[in-house]
Amino acid sequence: MSTDLKTLAEEANERLADASAQEVLAWARETFGDELVVTASMADGALPHLAAEAAPGVDVLFLDTGYHFAETIGTRDAVAATLPINLINATPKQTVEEQDAEYGKDLFAREPDKCCALRKVEPLNRVLSGYKAWVTGVRREEAPTRANTQVIEYDAKRDMVKLNPIAPWTQDDLDSYITDNGVLVNLLQYDGYPSIGCAPCTQRVAPGEDPRSGRWSGQGKTECGLHT
Question: How many angstroms separate the CA atoms of 133 and 124, rounded?
Fold first, then answer.
């Protein structure tokens, strides 16, 4: 454990718990410089947009699992083309075909935790090892598992500072930011997919349902392992 990073995160969270997302990101850029990376699922371009304003040229990490919707890949490409960011497209060690050959076809349907570990968690950890701080788009209202998310945390598992600058935002806050700033949105958001992951493990959600209920439906699974 890095005591310095842990103390830094705790002290910064006390100071910036009620700060705006822009202020949190500006502090992160000033503190970590090029050792800061932003993660983005490309459900929309809000977090990359925020980060690009606070830290032009910032590294933005996308986990290219090999199972994404075409709309998500299109959003990734459009965000990279229109914002001053450095897109890092992280891929698993195995292609889908190689994984199928070793573990059997459709591992996601039989062992979703294993599939997420191979195609999301391992690539994330591999790339994050080159940084001291990472930024996520986690919001408290998204799920009970995220209700206690701090704006700035110490990530003990990775010995990093983890920033969640939009943790306090409601869906209305996010929608307003997107509208006010002309932010790109994944087209699936308008087709019944409020939470977007890999195509085989994401279903449409009926109006009024938990936005994340379409993820791993019927699997008893609510998180991919990136934030737990």
Answer: 13
